[in-house]
Design brief:
Rossmann fold; globular; 24 helices; 22 strands; alpha/beta; three-stranded parallel beta sheet; eleven-stranded mixed beta sheet
């Protein structure tokens, strides 16, 4: 039974410091605090990003939300982590430190999918690298503790959110324990944290200890013993299989025990640890799911995949149970996910008094991530797509939180009137997905019981409302605003949803495409697509047919920009060869390619680490998944995506001969790669790009050198 919503986000009585009013920018120095008349901060936020006072930057949202509750909030952005001195610049906070890595995981921010160090940081002034540490949440928490040893530490952001339990860490190629233990934090907030942080801050201001708060949704903490008087659902071991499904001896050996799910009913209500007065609401404790312990998932890859399966099953805040995972002699305990914000609440969050520009301390320095979004509007949160390689569901949830039409139009006017350099073009009207605004389950009762990881895979759920006509109305009103010349859609489009409302595709194509529209089929072959939880390529063809038709009706030359992933779990060399043939036959040439990046806690990451498929019920005889781990094979899969690049031809020729497909080597258009290194013509057609590129590369004619 889910924990009921205690209080609306903005229904709390304001804290006494409300009398100081609204800060122009949240202070980053004692000088700014003095100008505001503050003797100290109630909360100090530490972030690995530059401070941009904009609703697309997490720490600005958290800071302004707490300010609206009456609290004095300071920000220390990108502090020098080599000494605790940088963490003392605002003095000791009254209530706690809030620690975040920033909008990105610090390791993904620092390293490519090939584990090579990046040369820039989009969230730093002038893109400067090296202004945050690796594993920023852990390092910042350590420095905070050194600076003020008695001040509570609350950790959050996507880095903490995706490491809340034992997790596979791609960069060390090992399973690491919960970040709660490595950071020694008092409390971890996961997901969108407005509800949790507002509640805990008000309670802390009334004298309750942060380290003893045990009943806040969207939080995780450590315990010395589990509570009783509850139903403990023991899923710490693999379920029994009735019959083996594979003869692979390695997978059978790794599967370990075969105990069935065990349910143990508690007897009496106890506090979590000796001396703690706080007790979790009894309704909230009726069913607690035990995950395999840290030591188990370290030793047993299939148990790791099993733990991932259970975690992803418990993501719906309307029915998720608390989770507990033993780490040595203590437990990491996760309360259910936070209740999504209502439309009225998310409107108010986005309408707080943001300056919408970087802090003045950066002077003329450019912050690339800000330049990318300064003319864009986020219209919703969450994603019900459930793509296995993506972390949006684990962080933001799969229930869509939509802003109102009036709030979105108001923000467009704010951009028009206040943002420097605005030329009349809104660069994006979207979010995690461009076209999920206002989409939800038709039946609230079904939604409250549903545990499907995706509403659109393997097909669109019959209970899902797919009507995108309200989005058509929003687009029309947005581009009709005075001073708005054009509204573009740059967020990724869920094309299998788009084709359900052809009128939406027509509106989009005729009025909101700036020449190129990005979509993400990710692959063409059924094997990898089934592991990605993505629709078949036929759905792409259906969308492309509508796109081409409406582009022609509008007399516009426009192109689709499909993204593809190399090296995803479930992908074979043959799959990549077939994808390359599809690209060539359709005239696509990738400028850069996207390799699978195993981010913490993603389902595909569990596949990558374990070699098993947590999308299916796991047992002693789990079916193995093709995994691309060896550097040479990863390079080959990338080379297939760039079949037209001469530097890849020797590798591709060798691979094609090994695969028995030497018939694809030759100097005609029917061949994939030339027979010689100079070669003949390669596939040409519409320009094409993948993620992290600029404008699509324009096809060029290869000319032979003139004879002497």
């Amino acid at each position: 039974m889910p924990l009921a919503l205690k209080q609306g986000l903005f229904d709390y009585p304001a804290y006494w410091a409300e009398c100081f009013g609204v800060a122009p920018f949240l202070p980053t120095s004692r000088t700014e605090m003095d100008a505001l008349g503050w003797d100290r901060c109630d909360v100090i936020l530490i972030t690995g990003d530059a401070y941009v006072d904009h609703p697309s930057f997490g720490m600005a949202v958290i800071g302004r939300t707490l300010e609206a509750q009456g609290f004095r909030v300071g920000i220390i952005a990108q502090p020098d982590w080599r000494s605790p001195d940088a963490f003392k610049v605002l003095g000791e906070p009254e209530l706690y430190f809030g620690v975040a890595a920033g909008n990105m995981d610090s390791l993904i921010n620092h390293y490519t999918a090939d584990r090579k160090r990046r040369n820039d940081d989009a969230y730093s002034p002038d893109g400067a690298p090296g202004l945050r540490p690796d594993r920023a949440v852990i390092v910042y928490s350590q420095r905070c503790r050194e600076a003020y040893s008695t001040v509570p530490i609350v950790i959050g952001s996507i880095e903490a959110s995706l490491r809340r339990i034992a997790h596979y860490d791609y960069w060390s190629d090992a399973v690491r324990r919960s970040i709660l233990l490595d950071s020694a934090a008092d409390l971890l907030l996961y997901g969108n944290a407005e509800r949790a942080i507002v509640e805990l801050t008000h309670r802390a201001s009334r004298g309750e200890k942060v380290g003893e708060m045990r009943d806040i949704r969207g939080t995780a903490f450590t315990l010395k013993q589990l509570p009783q008087a509850v139903e403990l659902v023991d899923e710490s071991e693999l379920p029994e299989d009735q019959a083996p499904r594979t003869s692979d001896p390695q997978l059978i050996a790794r599967s370990g025990g075969s105990n069935r799910e065990k349910v143990v009913s508690g007897i009496s209500l106890q506090t979590f640890t000796a001396g703690h007065a706080a007790v979790i609401n009894s309704d909230h404790l009726q069913r607690v799911t035990l995950l395999p312990a840290f030591e188990q998932v370290v030793e047993n890859d299939l148990l790791y995949a099993h733990a991932s399966r259970i975690l992803h099953r418990e993501t719906n805040p309307l029915n998720a149970s608390p989770l507990a995972q033993r780490h040595g002699n203590q437990w990491v305990y996760l309360n259910p996910p936070p209740i999504p914000l209502t439309t009225e609440e998310i409107d108010r969050v986005f309408e707080l008094p943001y300056q919408r520009v970087p802090h003045p301390m950066y002077g003329s320095a450019k912050i690339p991530a800000y330049d990318m979004i300064r003319f864009s509007v986020n219209i919703m949160r969450g994603c019900f797509g459930g793509c296995s390689f993506c972390s949006i569901t684990e962080h933001e949830g799969r229930l869509i939180q939509s802003r109102s039409e009036a709030s979105i139009l108001n923000e467009i006017e704010q951009i028009r009137d206040k943002t420097p350099g605005f030329t009349g073009v809104i660069s994006d009207l979207g979010g995690p997905t461009a076209n999920m605004w206002r989409l939800a389950c038709k039946d609230p009762d079904i939604e409250a019981k549903c545990r499907r990881p995706s509403c659109v895979y393997p097909g669109i759920c019959k209970n899902l409302n797919t009507d995108q006509t309200p989005l058509i109305g929003l687009y029309r009103k947005a581009r009709a605003l005075p001073g708005i010349k054009k509204v573009l859609i740059a967020s990724g489009l869920r094309y299998d949803l788009a084709v359900e409302t052809p009128e939406y595709v027509e509106e989009l194509v005729k009025h909101h495409v700036g020449g190129y529209l990005k979509i993400a089929p990710e692959h063409t072959e059924g094997g990898p697509l089934s592991k990605m939880m993505k629709p078949g390529i036929g759905t792409y063809d259906a969308f492309k047919s509508l796109f081409d038709r409406f582009s022609a009706e509008a007399d516009k030359e426009q192109y689709l920009i499909p993204y593809f992933i190399a090296g995803h779990p479930g992908t074979t060399d043959t799959d990549m060869m077939n994808l390359a043939l599809w690209l060539k036959s359709n005239g696509f040439r990738a400028d850069q390619v996207q390799s699978f990046y195993p981010s913490p806690m993603a389902t595909a990451t569990a596949m990558y680490h374990s070699g098993a498929d947590p999308l299916k019920r796991l047992g002693r005889a789990a079916i193995p998944v093709d995994i691309v781990k060896q550097p040479q094979q990863r390079r080959l899969h990338k080379a297939f995506l760039r079949y037209h690049d001469a530097s890849n031809w020797p590798m591709l020729r060798q691979a094609l001969r090994r695969m028995g497909r030497a018939d694809l080597i030759g100097n005609t258009k029917a061949h994939l790669v030339p027979r010689t290194q100079y070669g003949g013509p390669v596939g040409r057609g519409a320009p094409f790009k993948t993620q992290h590129t600029g404008l699509p590369k324009t096809p060029r004619t290869r000319r032979r050198p003139k004879k002497a």
